[in-house]
Amino acid sequence: MRSFSGTLAVTLTLVGGAAALTLPRSTSSYPGLKGLKYFFSFGDSYTTTGFNITDGSPLPAKGNPLGNPPYPGWTASNGPNWIDYLTVEFNQTETLTFNFAYGGATIDSALVAPYEPQVLSLKQQVEDLFLGVLQPQKATIAPWTAGDSLFLIWIGINDIGSSYLAHPDASDEFHRELMDEYFNLVDELYAVGARNFLFMDVPPVNRSPLTVGQGNQAVSLETEALASYNSLLACRVSDLKKTKSGVWAKVFKSSKVFNTILENPEQYGFKNAITYCSSYQNGTPEWNTFYPECGVPVDQYFWLNSLHPTHNVHKIIAAALANALCV
Question: Which domain of life is it from (predicted)?
């Protein structure tokens, strides 16, 4: 595995130290990063690796902690993504990762329709896949407990991107509906024994080429929607801590990591943090492929395409997240 050097390596810890919001303490079974045996991750294209728990492919096991497909999987980062890096490079002990994320996912397809009907929403990831296969009484392939597992959820990018124009004057109201469904699913996980949760807020996709290319009004409206969603997420996680016995929960502020990099891209090794190169947008043969028409190698771009960051961004996120989990 290649690693960063110089300034970038030094600044990872600085970002990590400022990227997480720790909620009030409660008695919990969180063992720290080094005590975890299982990650259960849920989300969209920022998280997916193409893992399939039902098709008979290799499942996560000692020596192959991510199972199928072969590392780094099918990602939207042109290399490993944050859950890849967290599992393989920034873990403290071998942790088996069951990654149910699906590209294009929304919280609930009935509230925000995905771009294609076959996309598995967070609701389907939790109810059909996790609860259908890995709740404790069915979990022979992963005998997890409350004290050795962490549930990681990064969702909301597509919910906001597909709805902020439709709800310009009622985003808080609509986001409360989304949060009701989101935390109903968290309650379902809690009911089968989940106690340790890591929630990631939505990054500043208002700064992505996709939104910027739509003009100032789109940027302004999505900026407001992001603030609304992330504020409500923090409130719901705080309520979770207060109302559910034994819960350990943390909000990881991916938004702060993104903004820190975007404000100082060269400090983190990025030569272009504004646009993307069309020759790179669908992936390249190597993680650091260079095409002359793009000016710099693909991994020196922040954005791989109009919405997805490159793997080096994910590496910084994973390093910061690992630091936040070492409590």
Answer: Eukaryota
Q: Which residues sit opposite 251 in a β-bridge?
A: 21, 199
CB contact at 8 A, 99 and 51: yes
Domain covering 7-325, topology: Rossmann fold (3.40.50)
Other C-beta atoms within 10 Å of 166: how many? 10
Amino acid at 195: R
Provide the edge-to-edge strand list for the sheet that holds 96-99.
20-22, 248-252, 196-200, 149-154, 38-43, 96-99
Q: Name the pLDDT band for 19 (thresholds 50, 70, 90).
A: low
Q: Does pLDDT of 23 surpass 60? A: no
In contact, 114 and 121? CB cutoff 8 Å: yes
From the list 18, 15, 1, 87, the residue with the least C-alpha distance to 268 is: 15
Q: How far apart are CA 8 and CA 152, in angstroms?
A: 25
With 0-12 / 13-18 / 19 or more C-beta atoms within 10 angstroms meaning exposed / middle / buried, residue 108 is buried
**DSSP-assigned letter for residue 163:** T
Mean pLDDT of 295-310: 98
